[in-house]
Design a protein that fits this description.
about 350 residues, two-stranded antiparallel sheet, 4-stranded antiparallel β-sheet, alpha+beta, H-NOX domain, about 10% strand, 16 helices, Arc Repressor Mutant, subunit A
């Protein structure tokens, strides 16, 4: 069964968690043990990593710091709206809490949460649920604590108030010392509850936000959409095929060649791609289009040279395919890109 979190994410959360471990006396090597990550990657703010790497880092922290019973809360305090990039700024510039909540849930996969989030409205309050049923048992309490407190801090930043909360419930057992939870949430949670949820006042959803800016909100949401598409482009077997088409012999590589690199028969590759709702030819076209757009926008190659690099024997075949993809000829697309770039420099 697939996990509720996407397989890839920004490295920023790992950077925060690694710094937490170091602040608590752990070595960098211990924090990153078995995660597949190295010190060099932590210096790259725009890098993306496998979600499994972050889960391993969390496991390392828990194993190395068993006496720190509020470790997840300490982690949650480190997340701010700006930590989430375009997602956070889109929320910040939304008109109301409702708009921010809808946008936030729509692009929830761009956050660092490992819990599945959902929202429900009732007369007595607005409940934000954190479903941790898919989490590895040893990591459950840490991740729920982190995700819930991080979400509360985001709500506080949006509204300009630190704890806009009626009450909260958590599935975990009552800790020996609940004081850190009272400090973090501003009240004692109801432990051993049937679900994890933050409960807000019912009127909060229609509250206007102080930094509302519709143009910035739309621009940030467009960035969220683009980022989501890019990450989805890399997922599953289709994502592996796209990567091989980009990095090996290019989009002109045949199914047999790609199947061999995946240690699959071409028949199995075809069947598994169909199960993901795509075909090998479709992936070839997607990769060709991505490369074509990049070459047309950033290189000085002629159309004939670009067509050859993309595996087209005739320029006319490339022009026909590009018009089918984009609705314009590659020559016109190239001119429009050049005009747009010149406008930006004025």
């Amino acid at each position: 069964m697939p996990t509720p979190w996407p397989p890839r994410r920004s490295i920023l959360s790992v950077q925060l968690l690694t710094q937490l471990g170091i602040d608590l006396g752990l070595s960098l090597e211990l924090c990153l043990r078995d995660s597949g990550l190295g010190p060099t990657q932590l210096t790259q703010p725009n890098a993306e990593i496998e979600a499994a790497s972050e889960l391993q880092l969390i496991a390392n922290l828990i194993q190395a710091l068993p006496a720190v019973t509020d470790l997840g809360l300490q982690a949650g305090r480190r997340y701010r709206l700006t930590t989430y990039g375009a997602w956070g700024y889109a929320l910040l510039n939304s008109a109301t809490v409702r708009q921010a909540a809808e946008l936030g849930l729509r692009y929830h996969s761009l956050t660092y949460a490992f819990t599945r989030l959902s929202l429900s409205e009732a007369i007595d309050g607005i409940s934000l649920y954190f479903d941790g049923s898919a989490l590895p048992a040893p990591l459950h309490d840490f991740i729920v604590q982190r995700d819930m407190l991080a979400a509360l801090q985001v709500a506080g930043e949006l509204l300009g108030t630190p704890r806009p909360l009626l009450t909260l419930e958590m599935c975990q057992d009552t800790p020996a010392d609940p004081a850190p939870f009272c400090e973090a949430f501003g009240q004692l949670p109801r432990f051993a509850a049937p679900c994890n949820r933050l409960i807000f006042p019912p009127e909060i959803l229609d509250q206007p936000l102080p930094r509302a800016n519709s143009q910035l909100a739309e621009a940030c949401e467009a960035q969220c959409r683009a980022l989501l598409v890019r990450r989805q482009w890399q997922q599953g077997l289709a994502g592996r095929v796209r990567k091989l088409l980009l990095n090996t012999a290019g989009p002109q590589a045949g199914m047999e060649q790609i199947a061999r690199q995946l240690n699959l028969s071409s028949r199995t590759l075809r069947r598994r791609l169909e199960a993901e709702g795509t075909r090998f030819r479709t992936l070839q076209d997607e990769v060709r289009l991505a490369l074509a757009e990049e070459l047309l926008a950033s290189s000085r190659l002629t159309l004939e040279e670009i067509a050859e690099r993309l595996g087209y024997g005739e320029l006319s075949n490339f022009i026909h395919a590009f018009r089918r993809w984009k609705g314009v000829t590659p020559g016109r697309y190239q001119r429009e890109m050049a005009d747009a770039e010149s406008m930006q420099t004025i």
